Amino acid sequence: MSATIAPIRTRFAPSPTGFIHLGNIRSALYPWAFARHHGGTFILRVEDTDTERSTQEAVKVIIDSMDWMGLHYDEGPYYQMQRMERYRAVLDQLVEGGHAYPCYMSTSELDALRERQMAGGLKPRYDGTWRPEPGKALPEVPAGVQPVLRFRTPAQGSVGWDDKVKGRVDFANDELDDLVIARPDGTPTYNFCVVVDDIDMRISHVIRGDDHVNNTPRQIHIFRALGHEPPVYAHLPTVLNEQGDKLSKRNGARSVLQYRDEGYLADAMVNYLARLGWSHGDAEIFTREQFVQWFDLEHLGRSAAQFDGEKLKWVNAHYLRALAPADLAQQVRPFLQRLGLREQGVDLAAAATLLRERAHTLLDVAQLCGMFYAEPEPDADLLLQHLTPAARAAILDLRSVLQALPVWEAPAIAAAMKQILGTHQLKMPQVAMPLRLLVTGRLHTPSLDAVLALFSRDTVMHRLASVA
Ligand code: GLU
Q1: Which of 19, 43, 62, 208 to mutate to test the pocket of ligand 1 (most atoms within 8 A of CB)?
Q2: Within 10 A of 384 (CB to CB), how many other CB atoms are there?
């Protein structure tokens, strides 16, 4: 008889407080890949109980970011604020089971306690005044005070788990004081909601940032008090920025959507982020399908990963070059529009395919496309410098030869140029530079024969007419 294996269910549980950067979305990518690898279920849960900081726009940013990256969820979004009744019912259950108790200590009493402890060189912690114990007399309940609910943490022993990234992690229970799980108004607190959700959503693997390691022992206690074994945990090391600080909005981290808007490709982003904290041998470039096929928790990195903008560009450039011309054109088009360039005359798929060789992003390609879709406005000084009398004569001649070419194609154009260089005894740059300026307005372009071939012959004739 084979053992029943619980279905794999993972979640991404962001707080919608305005911003998601690459480190955040990586915490969606790995649970997504893990669920996909195992044919499991990936869930989006919006942790919006911080009502002061949570906004609907931020929820949209999360959903748009996941959508752009292709991290589609199978269930959700669930919203914690819509689950309050359920949390209250579970709070009651904990109180009835003796796992939680009301605590009437006021904020000022707590402050005074903390001060005393710190003055005595102790770590500040709740002292258990209201914790019921057999044979212990509790203080008299003060009138008119709404209590908080505290979770009754086991006093002795320890709690731990085999973290898929960190290995064995243990906490002594006497390090953990009795956590507040409901505020005086009855609203549940963060760690408690997470556990109720992870139970109700039958989460099998929690893959999240290691800033939650200190919450985990508390969460495990709540799981057990509710009669459940905790899920498997994998706590991901931080992502550092290029200066070696934790990636955060405060020190310049950019939003995921900003990368989209700058012309990064979603597949490139998935590939880059996959490698930022996980590896498969030496593989640097792999498809989304390969990633899903290879992804496992065993090869998550144990130390902090550092963001490297140059590497991201390199990966993006790779994906840019791999796109089929029609897909490339389709992806570049919105960027052209944003730059106010009108796609006309020159075929965008052909132009973008030529230009991507020197681009890192879709935006780069669109900007370079300006040479095809904007009237050239060559800088007068540059023109003066490059359009020497000799060059002028050669270009005039070239114009006649080009006019007579039987086919308007790059090899024929290249041959014509070679012929003119020979007759005029000039070097390529002497003619190519002014020619580029006249036709495209730019000094730097891909190979001139390929560029000219993309324009119509009429356009080239027209732009060279000013030389006469
Ligand atoms: N809402 C938490 C955060 O945004 C994640 C909680 C979790 O994954 O357990 O950091």
Answers
A1: 208
A2: 11
SS3 15: coil
14 lines ligand 1 (CB under 6 A): yes
Side chain identity at residue 126, one-letter code: Y
Q: Residue 228 C-alpha to ligand 1 middle, in angstroms?
A: 20
Q: How large is the average pLDDT for residues 148-157?
A: 96
pLDDT confidence of residue 1: 45
Is the CB of 166 inside a 6 Å radius of any atom of ligand 1? no
- Over residues 290-310, the pLDDT tens digits come to 999 999 999 999 999 999 999
Q: Cβ of 345: how many Cβ atoms within 10 Å?
A: 13
Give the fold, CATH level 3, of 256-373. Glutamyl-tRNA Synthetase; domain 2 (1.10.1160)
Please say whether the dihedral angle defined by the alpha carbons of residues 372, 378, 383 and 389, taken in this order, is positive or negative: positive
The pLDDT tens digits of the residues spanning 230-282 come to 999 999 999 999 999 998 888 878 999 999 999 999 999 999 999 999 999 99
Q: What is the CATH number of domain 86-182?
A: 3.90.800.10
Mean pLDDT of the chain: 95
Q: Is residue 43 within 8 Å of 203, Cβ to Cβ? A: yes
What is the H or E stretch that residue 193 is in?
A: helix 190-200
Handedness of CA 345, 350, 352, 356 (dihedral sign): negative
**Range 9-79+190-240 has CATH code 3.90.1150.10:** no
Which CATH architecture fits 380-467?
Answer: Orthogonal Bundle (1.10)
List the domain boundaries for the chain. 9-79+190-240, 86-182, 256-373, 380-467
Q: Which amino acid is at 225?
A: A
Q: Is 387 in the pocket of ligand 1 (CB under 6 A)?
A: no
What's the whole-model pTM score?
Answer: 0.92
